[in-house]
User: Which sequence fits this backbone?
């Protein structure tokens, strides 16, 4: 199994978010590739042991009270892997960046704290949604982000002009993370985040103009009819998290549910689809 070189950092007392961001800024020149929290400790990941050693030296000088342990973290799952390269990501006009990279003023900017909520822009399925979001009219729309993770798509929809966005996730950690990211982006007036299982609770949310559903091919195929039923007539749904091997099954389920594909994008083995709810008789 592959291992990532990392530093495990502990502070004399529980660190504030600001303290952690200052620490990340100190090591920025070593191009850290990832960051996560482990209770009161934080881990910073690096591309090489040499970069880690340099970062350790920088931190020793900057903050003698900080305790730094070199660790090699096993590559456990795809979500962690997806967070292992954490510079800014540009998709079309949008930029998704961690908080220690300041907005450069040139683009709509989305700040995402890389932590346990999936969705830093480093996974192809998120980028496909961000690209598809930019080829549809979102201004003034009501939007549901089904499986919001970090909140990245909800914040993107709001940045692109959506009037009201509901972001839901069944994982409470993701909900907490999304609430934090929404606030950081000044989007709390436009994005409401709720803990909710789409499969059992979405019908109660009422209809929307646009749904984003970056889930899995299997879940999308099973919930296609429910997801389409959430759309206004002529509403649109963006689905992602679909592997090419699953595409036919997902497309078939949405077609049977009365949705028509209007755009397809692919990156590596991942596919994103934009579909419209066919108006008129089913
Ligand atoms: N929207 C983000 C995150 C996608 S990861 C992005 O595009 O990057 C998928 C998210 O969906 C995870 O956070 C997972 O917890 C959530 N999820 C999975 N099944 C769900 C369900 N049935 N209801 C609500 N959320 C779900």
Assistant:
């Amino acid at each position: 199994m592959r291992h990532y070189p990392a530093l495990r950092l502990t502070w004399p007392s529980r660190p504030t978010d600001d303290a952690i961001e200052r620490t990340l800024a100190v090591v920025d020149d070593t191009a850290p590739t990832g960051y996560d929290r482990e209770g009161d400790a934080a881990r910073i990941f690096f591309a090489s042991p040499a970069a880690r050693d340099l970062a350790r030296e920088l931190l020793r000088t900057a903050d003698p009270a900080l305790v730094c342990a070199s660790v090699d973290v096993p590559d456990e799952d795809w979500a962690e892997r997806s967070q292992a390269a954490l510079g800014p990501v540009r998709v079309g006009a949008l930029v998704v960046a961690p908080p220690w990279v300041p907005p450069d003023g040139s683009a709509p900017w989305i700040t995402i704290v890389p932590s346990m909520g999936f969705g830093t822009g480093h996974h192809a399925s998120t980028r496909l949604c961000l690209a598809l979001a930019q080829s549809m009219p979102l201004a003034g729309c009501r939007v549901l982000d089904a499986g919001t993770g970090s909140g990245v798509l909800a914040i993107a929809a709001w940045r692109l002009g959506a009037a009201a966005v509901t972001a839901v996730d069944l994982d409470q950690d993701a909900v907490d993370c999304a609430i934090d990211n929404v606030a950081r982006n000044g989007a709390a007036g436009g994005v409401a985040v709720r803990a909710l299982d789409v499969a059992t609770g979405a019908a109660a949310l009422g209809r929307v103009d646009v749904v984003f559903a970056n889930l899995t091919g299997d879940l999308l195929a099973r919930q296609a009819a429910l997801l389409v039923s959430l759309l206004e007539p002529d509403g649109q749904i963006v689905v992602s998290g679909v592997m090419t091997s699953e595409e036919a099954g997902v497309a078939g389920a949405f077609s049977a549910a009365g949705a028509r594909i209007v755009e397809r994008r692919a990156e590596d083995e991942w596919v994103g689809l934009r579909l419209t709810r066919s108006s008129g008789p089913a």
Confidence is low (pLDDT under 50) at residues 78-85. The pocket of S-adenosyl-L-homocysteine is lined by residues 118-119, 126, 129, 147-149, 152-153, 168-171, 174, 197-199, 214-215, 219 (CB under 6 Å). The CA atoms of residues 6 and 45 lie 4 Å apart. The longest helix spans residues 49-62.
